[in-house]
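Please go through the sequence and fold tokens given here and tell me how the chain folds. Record follows.
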Amino acid sequence: MKFSIEQAEDFVSSIFEKDGVLPTTARSVARALVAAEAAGQSGHGFRRIPVYIKQVRVGKVDAKAVAVATRVRPAVLSIDAHLGYAYPAIDLAVDQLPAIAREQGIALAVIGRSHHAGVMALTVERFAEQGLVAFMVANAPASMAPWGGIKPLYGTNPIAFAAPVEGSDPLVIDLALSKVARGKIMAARQKGQSIPEGWALDASGQATTDPHEAINGTMVPAGDAKGAALALMVEVMAAGLTGGNFGFQASSLLDDTGTAPSLGHTLIAIDPSLAGDTVFAKRLALMASEIEGQENARLPGRRSQGVRKQAAEDGIVIDDDILVEIEAL
């Protein structure tokens, strides 16, 4: 079924409101899921709806939670998601950090007791659109083993970065520290498809193309030992600084069993004029033109931005199998 962006947001928001989620929270979640789908990130989009709803019904996510932000230092916000969805807490950071960054030169938000952070490119880009440089990390339930091990300790732990480019869309970099985002494994499992070899290992540490075995096993880190080390860094930055659960302590985001995941996210916003540079975005445009001037080279984030613009014009489709799951709920 095809929807415009606005229709999709209304539809998704109504699903959550019917299950008792606060209207403002439902709208925040809907905007994030629809934006993910419009960006071509289906593993973080509509396919999350059934499990998000099931988690509300068993209390794994608090439908009535209201995120609260406290300015604990001149340049630091501490945000408690109160075991609700992550998106209202992230919205608070996006609303409040820019003014602090312009006042202090740099601003930090630590978000604790949170949930799935979604497509973080969409978060950091919101800062870059305001002329700021942004960096974000988030930890996730354990799905990667330390290099050389087979027991999952780290999440896929994404890192995202964005910066303004004069006369163009922002530069946006968003990557999971596994070879692929775990949402792609989940999407393959829902569709009954196999996954490429090299994405994941089964519970015994052997390569697998079965998404069910992959979900119960471990993800392969990007860059091997380097990726595993970066995933540990994110655990410290996202869970250590926020008081959130480390990946191995957090329950799964993909089912309705266990207690609240209580994950952490850390956001940094920087005013690029803090060092007296008033032409930052123009200089970045020069770098962008050098990259895009090379044959077959592409600036990170451009494909997703193009897909989103197309979706804004043509609308987006909710697959039949997802509609069936939603109706069954």
In short: The chain has a mean pLDDT of 95. The chain is about 40% helix and 15% strand.
